[in-house]
Amino acid sequence: MEALATDKQQQHKQKINQVFAEVGKVVVGQEDMVNRLLIGLFTNGHVLLEGVPGLAKTLTVSTLARVLHLDFARIQFTPDLLPSDLVGTMIYNQREGKFEVKKGPIFANIILADEINRSPAKVQSALLEAMQEKQVTIGETTFKLDRPFLVLATQNPVEQEGTYPLPEAQIDRFMMKVSIDYPTKDQELEVMRRISNMKFDFTVNTVLTKEDIFDIRDQVNKVKISESLERYIIELVYATRKPLEFKLNELANYIQFGASPRASINLNLAAKAAAYFEGRDYVLPEDIKEVALDVMNHRIIMNYEAEADNVKTTDVIKAILNKVPINK
């Protein structure tokens, strides 16, 4: 494994490790979640976190925001939320005799969209413009959002009453959908002890600045990926659309729609970031396989037969990873 080449890269590697350490002061475990959030940050991709309540999704995002020297806003999505509550509105200034723009919480670097599937379509549409175009329209004026701009959303897969399923077009805008699992017994014991200690210190140190983030983005962009691995990514995504061509006969009847081209783009970016975190300036097949589940699991649409037979998108992706060869 090739070592990082420059002093700047070494410094970045140390700072990334320090980010994990600082978040770990508050959040027990969940290193994989932090890893995916940082991949999103360094590749300009939004991340959707899905898990049952109590798994520290909100706490992890808010803690990470404090470790980064960035503006942070937490928006609790509710059924009565309006687009103006998100992006802002025009208000009338009686003293000046004219309308003025009052900007909403979307004008921050990191947005925590808590329980994103609890708001109706109009709010989702307003968020979609911000996520995709990195801009917001209030009245007749369009405002560019500050960079970096990252939406980290959470949703509860269990409680479906009073929720609005996210449109496929919006789900596809998320670089990754990360499923959060329960902690281990030892981790949960540590959580219980920390919370029962009323004097537990939740303070963390700031590690990364905007300049550091943009520098790391440039370094991640320079990570090399061979043509054979580029084609491997295309084959993986194509197998979700034409499973019969890859002899995935048993899964062909379960897939209604395969992954979009955004899957290919984001697999490439996420694999580069994963390689960079490992201290390499080149991508290995293992990097692609490591992020494939989170990049593709929300982009494959299963049919009713899959639901009846309890076949999940994760089953499809694992089968594809086992079946599709890497051509040298």
Pick out its properties.
globular, single chain, 328 residues, Rossmann fold, 16% strand, alpha/beta
Give an overview in words.
The structure is a single chain. By secondary structure, this protein is α/β, with parallel strands linked by helices. The protein folds into 2 domains: 7-195 and 206-215, 3-Layer(aba) Sandwich (Rossmann fold), CATH 3.40.50.300; 223-323, Magnesium chelatase subunit I, C-Terminal domain (Helicase, Ruva Protein, domain 3, Orthogonal Bundle). It is 47% helix and 16% strand. It has 14 helices and 11 strands. It has helices at 7-26, 31-43, 57-67, 83-87, 121-133, 168-171, 185-196, 210-221, 227-241, 249-252, 261-277, 285-296, 304-308, 313-323; strands spanning 46-50, 72-76, 88-93, 98-103, 110-114, 135-138, 141-144, 150-155, 174-179, 255-257, 301-302. The strands form 4 sheets. The chain has a 5-stranded parallel beta sheet with strand order 2-5-8-1-9. Strands 3-4 form a two-stranded antiparallel ribbon. The protein has a two-stranded antiparallel ribbon with strand order 6-7. The longest helix is centred in the first third of the chain and has 20 residues, at 7-26.
Rg, rounded, reads 21 Å
CA-based shape? globular
CATH level-1 class of the largest domain: Alpha Beta
The N- to C-terminal Cα distance equals: 19 Å
Strand fraction equals: 15-25%
CATH superfamily of the largest domain: P-loop containing nucleotide triphosphate hydrolases
Based on the structure, what is the oligomeric state of the protein chains? single chain
**How many DSSP-defined strands?**
11
- Helix/strand order: HHEHEHEEEHEEEHEHHHHEHHEHH
- What level of helicity do the residues show? 40-55%
How many structural domains in the coordinates?
A: 2
Count every helix, treating DSSP H or I runs of 4 or more residues as helices: 14
List unreliable stretches of 5+ residues. none
Mean pLDDT: 84
Strand order of the largest sheet: 2-5-8-1-9
Label the structural class: alpha/beta
Known CATH architecture of the largest domain? 3-Layer(aba) Sandwich
